[in-house]
Amino acid sequence: MALRALDNTMPAAVEERPKKVAKVAAPPAAVKAASPGSGKKQKKKNDENSAPRATAAAGEQAVEYIPSEELEAAAHPKAKAAGLVAELDSKDWIRACEALNDTRRLAIHHSALLNPILEKVMLAIVKTMKNPRSAVLKTSIMACTDIFNNFGNLLSSVSDDAFDKLLLQLLLKASQDKRFVCEEAEKAMRAMAASMPPLPLLKKLKAYVHHANLRVRAKAAVAISHCAARMNIEAMKEFGMSVLLQVAAELLNDRLPEAREAARSVVASVHGAFAKEAAAKGKEEEEDAPDVAASWESLCSLSLPPISAQAVAKIAASSQ
Asked: How far is 98 from 95, CA to CA, in rounded Å?
């Protein structure tokens, strides 16, 4: 009888399990159906999330990324220059974008009006480059490009502090994952390296060779290679040929291929200037080549550790 009693209780226990499952499953459905207040809150959240998107979309359409060659002169340039710094500092990001485009117009067509306030404008642009709005960020970098192209010797017009802050932001933006930001910042840095005197710019860039961010190091290395390509032997000697080779040798061991390729370009530029100076002495090529090679190896061995000297020598030999 005991066995029968056990057999009889097992089905009863099995039959009760679905009821328990049903009781557990019922409350969530009941809560969803019986909580209209939560549905209203959800609608409010959706409304709050959708409204900024609509505003942002409308704002993005209002902001145009105008190429430099299509920017026309300002209608009232003196008035624009007078209120430019305040407009750049506006909390309304659309007004800030308009002010950035006005900055570009003044830089291209009215540089004499922009020059007296250039440092204040540069510091204001640095602030706009930290703005989370993509439209403000891109327009601010475009403004940097136009300023570089129209104010070649920028360091003579602004303080070291203002330029250092701008340079840091450009390097950081060029190192971002967002492609449109990266490309625009790289374009600005190419304009910077092409328009500014290479020697003072190289002195500024040298500090970033030791930056903790490897992408920043790589972007700085590319800018250094652009500077070295524009320098003659006199400028290299003023900077220090040994120092320039040491910078290149350090970047040759960097983790990123972009930095290593830039370092090889620096070595090629230094060697090219070195060989050009030797050739200008009027010696014949057959007699000059061994002397140049020996002098180059001597410079490398005096400037670098043996392993680095050998690596630099190989790069120079392969570039010939």
From this structure: 5
